[in-house]
């Protein structure tokens, strides 16, 4: 791993091949009956993401690759069953870029199409929302910044997982739900 971290391309390729060998039985078991080409595509996508994220992997590269593979398998199973990820917005869109800073200046909080802020007037509540977010945990602050920057939930999940490797997707989803509930509670007296 040290050689690969130092930039040795051959060492990284050898590590990827070892990981591929370890991941293959997992994907074959979880997606039993799927065409081999589909399995290879998913495995290849997993390794591409692994190499892209290589700089943030500090320990146990196999575990990191397994977490990517689990997400890819989940995507494939949802696609097969017709289940889709739930959007953060009622209309299912991801439009209107949002920028937010918890600094001194007035941030642009949300557009009228975002379901989270449908019932409030962002212009009137902007200072209250910023103050409420500042009172939340660091996890919630990062989560809301990501939402306001129009980041995908999977991207936020990967970021959180990189900093807290033992974090499960279920725990992550529970934390984000609690963050939304807490922000609603903090802002509701001003609505």
What does this structure look like?
This protein has helices at 2-5, 9-30, 36-52, 61-81, 122-135, 138-148, 153-163, 169-187. It has eight helices and no strands. The termini are far apart. Residues 89-123 have low confidence and may be disordered. It has 191 residues and is mainly alpha-helical. It folds into two domains: 2-81, Orthogonal Bundle (Rna Polymerase Sigma Factor, Chain: A), CATH 1.10.1740; 115-190, no CATH class. It is 62% helix and 0% strand.
What's the quick description here?
The protein is mainly α and 191 residues long.
Observed structural traits:
Rna Polymerase Sigma Factor, Chain: A; 191 residues; mainly alpha; single chain; 8 helices
List the helices and strands and how they pair.
Elements: H1 2-5, H2 9-30, H3 36-52, H4 61-81, H5 122-135, H6 138-148, H7 153-163, H8 169-187
Helix pairs in contact: 2-3, 2-4, 3-4, 6-8
CATH topology of the largest domain: Rna Polymerase Sigma Factor, Chain: A
Q: How many DSSP-defined strands? A: 0
Counting structural domains, the number is 2
Portion in helices: 55-70%
Categorize the overall geometry.
Answer: elongated
């Amino acid at each position: 791993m040290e050689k690969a971290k130092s930039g040795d391309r051959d060492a990284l390729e050898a590590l990827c091949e070892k990981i591929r060998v370890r991941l293959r039985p997992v994907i074959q078991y979880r997606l039993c009956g799927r065409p081999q080409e589909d399995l290879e595509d998913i495995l290849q996508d997993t390794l591409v993401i692994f190499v892209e994220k290589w700089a943030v992997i500090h320990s146990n590269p196999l575990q990191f690759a397994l977490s990517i593979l689990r997400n890819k398998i989940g995507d494939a199973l949802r696609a097969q069953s017709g289940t889709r990820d739930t959007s953060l917005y009622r209309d299912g869109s991801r439009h209107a870029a949002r920028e937010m800073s918890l600094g001194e200046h007035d941030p642009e909080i949300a557009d009228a199409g975002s379901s989270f802020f449908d019932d409030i007037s962002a212009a009137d509540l902007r200072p209250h929302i910023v103050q409420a977010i500042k009172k939340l945990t660091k996890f919630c602050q990062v989560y809301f910044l990501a939402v306001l920057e129009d980041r995908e939930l999977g991207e936020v999940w990967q970021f959180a997982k990189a900093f807290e490797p033992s974090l499960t997707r279920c725990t992550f989803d529970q934390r984000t739900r609690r963050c939304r509930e807490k922000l609603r509670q903090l802002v509701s007296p001003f609505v």
